[in-house]
Amino acid sequence: MSFRISYAPPADDTLAKMRGGESFRDEMVRTLGDEPYGHASSAVKSERDRREATVAGAIVLYYVSRSVLTVTVVRLVPLP
């Protein structure tokens, strides 16, 4: 089962400024798009569907919607 990756406007703005943005998108699909509860992610504030993970050198805060198979990235913090 594959999840669609969508980006909220603040995360999309950050992604547009990142070097290697396209390879980051590919890595998101390969990792969190395949298994949003895996890849060393952790629940935020004990909410199972509100998660945080590090993907391709960036901290990603996202929500998982199992009903529509979507991962929505709400915050993206590239590591220096």
Keywords:
globular; 24% helix; 5 strands; alpha+beta; five-stranded mixed β-sheet; 80 residues
Break the fold down into its secondary structure elements and pairings.
Blueprint: E1 4-7, H1 9-17, H2 21-30, E2 42-44, E3 47-55, E4 58-65, E5 70-78
Parallel strand pairs: 1-5
Antiparallel strand pairs: 2-3, 3-4, 4-5
Protein name: DUF4258 domain-containing protein
Organism: Streptomyces globisporus
Characterization of the model:
The protein has two helices and five strands, in the order βααββββ. By secondary structure, the chain is α+β, with helices and mostly antiparallel strands. The N and C termini lie far apart (33 Å). The relative contact order is 0.27.
Describe the structure concisely.
This is DUF4258 domain-containing protein. With 80 residues, the protein is α+β, with helices and mostly antiparallel strands.
Structural class: alpha+beta
Number of strands: 5
- Discrete helix count: 2
The ordered string of helix (H) and strand (E) elements is EHHEEEE
Note the main sheet: 5 strands, mixed
Low-confidence stretches: none
Distance between the termini: 33 Å
> Mean of residue pLDDT?
96
Q: What kind of assembly state do the chains in view correspond to?
A: single chain
What strand order characterises the main sheet? 1-5-4-3-2
How much of the residues is beta strand, in percent?
35-45%
User: Radius of gyration from the CA trace?
Assistant: 11 Å
Proportion in helices = 10-25%
Global geometry: globular
